[in-house]
Amino acid sequence: MPQSRISGRIAIDAPAKINLFLDVTGRRADGYHLLESLVVFVAVGDRLTVEPADTLTLSIEGAFAGALSDLGTNSGTGADIGSDNLILRAARALRDAYSIDAGARMKLEKNLPVSSGIGGGSTDAAAALRVLCALWQVEAGPTRLARIALSLGADIPVCLNARPAMMSGIGEIVNDVAAPPPCGVVLVNAREGVSTPAVFAARKGAFSNTAGWDEPATFERFVDVLRMHNNDLVEAALSVSPVIGEVVHALAASDDCALARLSGSGGTCFGIYRTAAQAAAAAMQIGANHPEWWCVATAIRDGAPEIVWC
After folding, report:
1. pTM recorded for the entire structure
2. CATH of the domain at 285
3. 3 in any annotated domain
4. Which of 13, 17, 23, 124 is catalytic?
């Protein structure tokens, strides 16, 4: 059916996701693993800009546009983008769900490394769902939009939420939690893509018990409680990409690092610091020692990004 739509160009940030801890709690009969993970989002990420058009097209630019090309998702104009690109899949799923006959000209600024455990493709798809709802004037309820997100990938519902949350099940259960105390964060990636299916296939050992999350009021308590949890995918990720061990070691050895850990299935690792200044100094130190790595200082967001006119 014809849809009303806004004119002009709008944009939204697609923030990087961090799994502060990740417990693998079981496996379903269909092979999907059950998880419990504390997820936060940070101030760095990709950016998606959209404007009205008769057809759906996507162009990609930015520091890691070429890396998408290496994975078979080319940068360039719409005809060059692989049909399995998550942004295009999200756009088509939303259009089909609401019988929309409009298109969109979409441009992704790809600032995050790919296959890196910080939700790059998932956060881009979630951003697409949100910004296209605005462009096409779709009043999508959160439950239905979350179902569309889950049909595209297990990480996309929590990225659609884009706030500090406990994620469980296969990713479909998302419960908001209070934002952690203010702190600095450093993200480091050795620019080696890590396959999530390969990491889960390599995982061995028993499943973890669910433990929930106490919302700590101080930085010290925040770090102490995180230390009570782990990332159950670390050993498997190290077997797939041994350089992850070097990255974690570099973070842990940096000045003032309170905790260093792998995010998700890798290969991005994060360090937590009491202050933003300490994180910035650590990022400079690690970047100087490893100029071939992607290294950035950032901070944890306390809310989802807003759609903006541009």
Report:
1. 0.92
2. 3.30.70.890
3. no
4. 17
pLDDT at 82: 56
Active site residue 17: yes
Q: Is it the case that residue 265 has pLDDT exceeding 60?
A: yes
Q: Both tokens of residue 215?
A: 């919302």
Which one from 23, 46, 124, 155 is the annotated catalytic residue? Answer: 155
Indicate the residue among 176, 207, 240 that finishes a domain. Answer: 176
* Residue 293, domain extent: 184-298
Instruction: Report pLDDT for 60.
Output: 96
Separation of CA 113 from chain center: 11
What is the CATH number for 104? 3.30.230.10
Whether 214 is a known active-site residue: answer: no
**For residue 136, which of 107, 106, 95, 97 has the smallest C-alpha distance?**
95
